Amino acid sequence: MSCVNILEKERNVVINPLKTCQPLGAMFAVTGINKGFPIVHGSQGCSAFVRYGFARHFREPSEIAVTSLHEDAAVFGGRKNLVAGIENLALRFNPDMIGVITTCSSEIIGDDVYGFVDTARENLKEQIGEDSKQIEIVPISTPSFVESHFKGYDNAVKAIVNHLARKEEPNEKINIIPGIINPGDIRELKHLLGMMDLNGIFLTDISDPFDAPLRPSTQTIPFYPKGGTSVEEIRDSANSLGTVSICKYAGSGASSLEREHKVPAAIESPPIGIQNTDKFLKNITKFSGNQVSEELLDQRGILIDSMADNAARYLFGRKVAIYGDPDLTTGIARFVGELGMEPTMVCTGVKNPEFAKDMEKIAKETGTEMDVMVGQDLRAVEVYLKENNVDLLIGNSDGRLIALDLGIPLIRVGFPVYDRVGYQRQSILGYRGGLYLMDLITNTVLEKYYEPTHWKLQQ
Amino acid sequence: MEPIIETFESRKKHMCVKGDGISIPVCDKASLPGTVTQRTCVYGGARIVLMPITDSIHLVHGPIGCAACTWDIRGSKSSREDLYKKGCSTDLHEKDIIFGGEKKLFETILELNKLYNPGAIFVYATCVSGIIGDDIKAVCKKSEELTGCRIIPVQSEGYQNHNKTKGHWIGGDALLNHVIGTKEPEKTTPFDINIVGEFNVAGDLWGIKPLIEAMGVNILSTLTGDSHVDEIAQAHRAKLNIVQCQKSSNYVAKKMEDKYGIPFIKVNFFGLDQTVNSLRDIADFFGNDEMIEKTERIIETGLREVEHKTDEYKQRLNGKTVALYVGGNKAWSLVRAFEELGMEVMMSGTKNGIKEDYEMIKETVKDGTIIVDDANSTELAKLLKKYRPNLLISGAKEKYISLKLGIPFCDFNHDRISAFAGFNGFVNFAKEVDASVSSPVFELTSKTFGGD
User: Fold this and answer.
1) Is-above-0.80 flag for pTM?
2) In a domain, A267, yes or no
3) Are residues B163 and B47 in the same domain?
4) Is B244 part of a structural domain of the chain?
5) Which one of A15, A216, A322, B42 has the largest count of C-beta atoms within 10 Å of its C-beta?
6) To the nearest whole number, what is the mean pLDDT of chain B?
7) Is B392 found in the same domain as B294?
């Protein structure tokens, strides 16, 4: 028996949110560009609190400029601040790209960001001549009162691609839209592409910017970590073999490349577990013609081998509640299904009609009766879990108190994870990431549900 | 004269060296647009001073981000409820922007009251609610009448000012206008006080409270660490306010002095000398012989308990330099504590200092100390790289800037997990500072592997 019950939010108030506003997603995307600099056109809190959040999760500096809008700007418009802000940023930091990220206030007061950017470009040309052309300035519209951080990420990737991608000679690369994932995840995706004998263009790549080495002698000021996708590479994304967006509900950058530059697109769940990773690799094969190597098949086999070792013995039939961003949530739900566990509740803070449909599919595959909460919050998760037993919780650190109160072990995934270390460096993607996630789940189950006295009997 | 660091022309006046003639930097100005300012918004300022009120719901009236990025980010501890840790938002959407968010706010307040029956609901205005002109006050009044719960407007539109301090004041105003003086204490004593500007970060209050109570002083309320709104409501009957965070809370203390005639004294429980002085100042204020005598005994016991407990740390820390870059208060209140450890404060700066704050810093630090105002992340990195202190004291946004340069860091902000106030707090403080400065990791970064 399988079915999906959609649980709608029955109140106005959001309590302990599972989403934030659009600009965060855009700041994340721009950080993944080599010598890219986000500038937020809004109040100082709009950048400060996001930097704080990134710092806590990634344990890295997060450099985000702001136009510091104040009362006069709210009355007379933010033109002066934005034009001066872009100039200051360009002259002082010499970035390759500036992502101009709007906010609720700048959108409501109706600032003509495109016009202001043009003015800033002209001013820069007067001051530094042709050099100013080396600095790409991309307006990214991210009104905070529309949808969520997920939409902001989507809007940013789309704006960057639309602004930069140029059709030229075909390359042999695959574009990847990774979504809001960890440095470890991106490194795993690179590994998978490498095993397929391919290079990727990541739109964008936070792996090095948010996991940079501590080498004081090489430390530049301003802080430009190495890595991230270069502007040149993003230009070249119009010439790739195809685009795979593993950020299922934010794939409009992929669609745009397909529409504008005939780069075929595949928009799928992230490669978490066997079937999702298979699908990912098949899409890569479809676009490139490159076959999955023996070595990769071995990695797949190792994951299945370990699943065979553990899943039936320890995991089968265990109930799991999953909350977080919709892409990771669908991916994880399918994987725990493959492990024989039952994803009895999934919750996302983001509203997306596709999400519920995908969950219905997964419920069918896994034969689970699944409660699906869309556009909900952690309060809803808490209330649900008080009435419905589960064995495990999978989600970000914000659920730690619920887990503690109810005595349910929490497997930490997604953003933000701030009460444990190292999670940002691990990957839950690909076959190797599946191994890591399964081990994490299994060890947690062993710790919580098995007596240590008879270990040798329980092997 | 060589500039302190290379920076924008307009920013140079925001840095100075004490003793070089001008000993106060230009301050309290809008940050330069397009820089990575370490400042935040007015809403953030109001939120941090009120958030420690534990029996209350803190409802943010705006798009989701204002609540989502700030809920439960202050390490203020509670001995009772944890209602204050919830992140509540009206989650304004496009249609609310167009038609106004008042109705949604009203319904949200009713929902929260029904769900939690809180001591109060603080309703924070954000940039958006300000721009669209929602009348938060009217909605609060109406819902207060309907529910009987205290519904308190906080007019903290984020864009109001470049200085977060304005937000501290707005938070204070919310208490002054809607809470303080609305309830009479069951009993009063001649020695009633309020502890103002103590937010119980990491449990600091619990290091101070027992000392003060042992003196025979009755603590009517704390603004706002580990407090209930009903306790703050009785604060007007105190005979004295003692102010720990003078940056955020001198304002409230002055207003209470004007309105209720309650005098205030500035105290500082960071460091042994300062703790001793503060306890004596309180006793002196009351001038009660028995209390003065008791206080001396408390001081004696307190000092004896921690004697030699910091010797090992001091040995390692002696002569090491420290840079402070903080919100305000700690730029002066920590200086003596570091001196007691044998360390030298080589730089002190604030993100939101006003003139009176820099006067305090100037009075506290030695000649030759660099004083900086509103250093953005690049300037901070340059200062650290050029002057290479042995330790930076700052907050989470600054932490990784410092560490990337191989400079040890110690959190003295919201993320702190050890209590630093009072006698025992000083031992924790010494221990934590030592753990940061003396960690062998930083040897690895500076010792070379042929290059680094």
Assistant:
1) yes
2) yes
3) yes
4) yes
5) B42
6) 93
7) no
Q: What is the pLDDT of residue A215?
A: 86
- CA distance, residue B84 to nearest chain A CA (Å): 11
Nearest to A13 among B90, B378, B397 (CB): B90
Q: Taking CB atoms and an 8 Å limit, are A217 and B111 in contact across chains?
A: no
Which one of B306, B338, B354 terminates a domain?
B306
CATH number at residue B378: 3.40.50.1980
Looking at residues B363-385, what average pLDDT do you find?
Answer: 93
Rounded average pLDDT over B258-266: 97
In this structure, of A268-272, A426-430, B296-300, B392-396, the range with the lowest mean pLDDT score is B392-396
Q: Which residues of chain A have pLDDT under 70?
A: 1-2, 455-459
- CATH for A62: 3.40.50.1980
Q: Using a CB-CB distance cutoff of 8 angstroms, which residues of chain B are in contact with residue A180?
A: none
Whether residue A194 sits in one domain with residue A125: no
In a domain, A129, yes or no: yes
Q: Is the pLDDT of residue B452 over 60?
A: no
Kindly tell me if the per-residue pLDDT of B1 is higher than 80: no
Q: Do residue A144 and residue B382 have CB atoms under 8 angstroms apart?
A: no
Q: Are strands B88-89 and A242-245 parallel, antiparallel or unpaired?
A: unpaired
A168/chain B closest Cα distance in angstroms = 34
Determine, for residues B159 and A71 on separate chains, whether the beta-carbon distance falls below 8 Å.
Answer: yes
In this predicted structure, what is the pLDDT of residue B222?
A: 97
Domain assignment present for residue B451? The answer is no
Q: Most A CBs within 10 Å: which of B108, B156, B159, B414, as the mutation test of the A interface?
A: B159
pLDDT (average), residues B152-161: 93
Whether B445 has a pLDDT exceeding 80, the answer reads: no
Determine the residue among B114, B116, B397 to mutate to test chain A binding: the one whose Cβ has the most chain A Cβ atoms within 10 Å: B397
Contact A61 B401 (CB under 8 A): yes
Q: Name the residue range of residue B60's domain.
A: 42-178
Whether A426 is covered by a domain: the verdict is yes
* Chain B residues with beta carbon closer than 8 angstroms to that of A89: 34-35
Identify the domain containing residue A392 by its residue range. Answer: 3-16+310-457
Which of A22, A48, A108 comes nearest B40 by C-beta? A48
Q: What is the pLDDT of residues B327-362, one digit of tens each?
A: 888 888 899 999 999 999 999 999 998 998 999 999
- pLDDT, residue B226, reads 97
Residues of B in contact with A68 (CB under 8 A): 30-33, 37, 39, 162
Q: How many CB pairs under 8 A join A and B?
A: 239
Residues A435, A320 share a domain: yes
Are B246 and B335 members of one domain?
Answer: no
The Cα of A245 is separated from the nearest Cα of chain B by a number of Å equal to 25
Say yes or no for a CB contact (<8 Å) between A24 and B69.
Answer: yes
Task: Flag if B87 and A70 touch (Cβ within 8 Å).
Answer: no
In a domain, A135, yes or no: yes
- Report the chain B residue with the minimal C-alpha distance to residue A22: B65
Closest residue of A to B383, CA-based? A221
Partner-chain contact A42 B68, CB within 8 Å: no
Q: What is the pLDDT of residue A2?
A: 66
Q: Is residue A318 domain-shared with residue A260, that is, in the same domain?
A: no
Summarize the confidence of residues B293-315 as an average pLDDT.
96
Q: How many domains does chain B have?
A: 3
Contact state of A145 with B93 under an 8 Å Cβ cutoff: yes
End of a domain among B269, B284, B306? Answer: B306
Closest A-chain CA to B382: A221
Share of chain B above pLDDT 90, in %: 82
pLDDT tens per residue, range A368-396: 899 999 999 999 999 999 999 999 999 99
